[in-house]
UniProtKB/TrEMBL annotation:
Gene behind this protein: ydjA_2
UniProt keywords, alphabetically: Oxidoreductase
Record keyword Oxidoreductase present: yes
Keyword Oxidoreductase set for record: yes
Pfam families for the chain: Nitroreductase
Protein name: Protein ydjA
EC nos: 1.-.-.-
Domain (Nitroreductase) ranges: 21-69
Protein's organism: Klebsiella pneumoniae
GO molecular function, one term: oxidoreductase activity
């Protein structure tokens, strides 16, 4: 799961080097945990990917997309 920060950072390259909003992000995640799920009652899981992990995660997504495309062609 991408955090709000990651979504913004992907959309706005100028934001990529800003410090992570620790307390603000924590408040966002706490609010998300309380969001209704319309009776499904499924647990939420949040993953915060920061620093070098973002590059590694990006590489894994790209690798997975290439593999999925290759499998569709076969």
């Amino acid at each position: 799961m991408l955090s709000i920060y990651c979504l913004i950072a992907a959309a706005l390259p100028a934001w990529r080097n800003l410090p992570r909003p620790g307390e603000q992000l924590e408040n966002i995640l706490r609010a998300g945990l309380r969001a209704p799920d319309h009776g499904t009652l499924q647990p939420w899981r949040f993953f915060i990917i920061a620093d070098d992990g973002r590059e590694r995660f990006s590489q894994l997504l790209e690798k997975g997309a290439r593999e999925a495309a290759r499998m569709r062609r076969e």
